[in-house]
Amino acid sequence: MLIIPLRLRLFMPEWQIDIKIKKQFKRHLNRPYLRRIIRGVLAAEEAPSPLEVSLVITDDEDVHRLNKRYGKNDHTTDVLAFPLNEEKTTASHGSNPGPTFISPQDGVPLLGEVIISYPQALRQVEEHKNSIEEEVTLLIIHGFLHLLGYDHASQADRKRMQGHEKKIILGLTDNGKR
Hints:
By secondary structure, this protein is α/β, with parallel strands linked by helices. It has one domain (14-172): Collagenase (Catalytic Domain). The protein is built from six helices and six strands. β1 (15-21), α2 (31-44) and β2 form a beta-alpha-beta unit. The radius of gyration is 16 Å and the shape is globular. It starts with 5 loop residues before the first helix and ends in a 6-residue tail after the last helix.
């Protein structure tokens, strides 16, 4: 069961969350659940409000194309994060800088977009011994932490990011169980 943190229930920040799911995957995913996970990550990391973010769940071909074009990797992957930060500033993310947000004309800062390959998530279910819901949840958390300035370029950064992932999972769920 998903538990919404008390501070999130008492003060619902103005986070605009846009979720796009490729047609063939829509019946497998619960949009309100995905939105709650994103809100939980933003709340756990005390993201500013107002803020706009986007989640796209698509296929291997789309992710491969984006990964090749922007990540310079000629293969699919499970999750891509595209921060829309103008520049980085120092924040409390260990050795990683925190985000500076782009403010469009409507004044709502854009954090960025997370893109998940649903077929790759399905393949990882077997490998990680998770349910598809657990796998997608982990990928959402991982992707949104990247948008918030976390990385895993070094071993220390990887441990820090994994610690935050575990903390968020425990905070969103009943003892880490869905």
